[in-house]
Design goal:
The protein has about 270 residues and is an all-alpha fold. It has one domain. About 60% of the residues lie in helices and about 0% in strands. It contains 8 helices and 2 strands; from the N terminus they run H-H-E-H-H-E-H-H-H-H. About 35% of the residues are buried. The mean pLDDT is about 90. It holds the Pfam family Steroid_dh. InterPro entries: 3-oxo-5_a-steroid_4-DH_C, SRD5A/TECR.
């Protein structure tokens, strides 16, 4: 019953070993990163940029500023999404909406990296590389997987328009809470503070919550095997990252409100 419903929500699996393999790899890798976050082994950026290496001074690590690191994370995916308009022209309405959404998503990320975020730490190259490759390969695979649906019949249940609504809610909510985070620090300040405003009063990572909503919007627009696999994997990763973030705030601030959850209001 559940499998039948799921199959009605997406295009048939593509005749592509590459896309099917990437669907499995993306889901497993992202879910594993989420589990690692829960276990305390973090990808080294933001407040966790040096947490796994503080006691390992014998190993040389290549690091750069967080601003440069964030641009490295998002720029290749943005360029790939933009280039897809020339590589696969005249692909139809659904594919055009998907490519516009992906381009807007990564343009927003680059814009925030340049003009919104305020930085206090560095980023390690060994953490930046897998994140950059994940964003780049997911963008390429999602667009290519959509290209393979060009001559296929539409799924019985059309999620394109609900997906577009979810995407817009997600990207606006994510940007708003990133803006609130940027206003926590005055000029020259680098210390962390407990965020306030928006949904920060009930979850410590509302920007992750809206990012999850945004990615479900993308998967609904796409309705492909890869779109759903990447989104579900991303959900597991962001759940793990938000859990670790909440624990970090509890360890750093004695007055952190215990009723504030990690990412899902009143639940988790």
């Amino acid at each position: 019953m559940a499998m039948s419903l799921f199959l009605n929500l997406m295009f048939p699996p593509p005749p592509s070993i590459f896309v099917i393999a990437m669907s499995v790899i993306s889901f497993v890798a992202l879910a594993n990163y989420g589990l690692s976050e829960v276990r305390g082994k973090h990808l080294n950026y933001s407040k966790f940029w040096n947490v796994n290496n503080s006691n390992n001074n014998s190993k040389k690590h290549i690091k750069f500023s967080s601003k440069v690191g964030m641009l490295l994370l998002y720029s290749p995916a943005f360029l790939a999404a933009t280039a897809s308009f020339w590589i696969f022209p005249n692909e139809g309405f659904r594919t055009t909406i998907l490519r516009c959404a992906l381009t807007l998503h990564y343009f927003k990320r680059v814009f925030e990296s340049l003009f919104v975020h305020k930085y206090s730490a560095s980023m390690l190259l060994e953490s930046a590389i897998p994140i950059t490759l994940s964003y780049l390969m997911s963008t390429i695979t999602m667009i290519y997987g959509q290209h393979l649906t060009l001559d296929l019949p539409e799924p019985p249940i059309n999620l394109l328009y609900p997906g577009l609504v979810l995407f817009l809610i997600g990207i606006i909510g994510n940007f708003y809470h990133h803006y609130l985070l940027s206003k926590l620090r005055g000029k020259g300040e680098k210390e962390y503070k407990i965020p306030k405003g928006g949904l920060f009063g009930i979850v410590i990572c509302p920007h992750y919550l809206f990012e999850i909503i945004e990615f479900y919007g993308l998967s609904f627009i796409s309705q492909t095997l890869y779109g759903f696999s990447f989104t579900i994997g991303t959900t597991f990763y962001l759940l793990g990252r938000s859990y670790a973030t909440r624990n970090w705030y509890i360890s750093k601030f004695d007055d952190f409100p215990k009723n504030v959850k990690a990412v899902i209001p009143f639940f988790f």
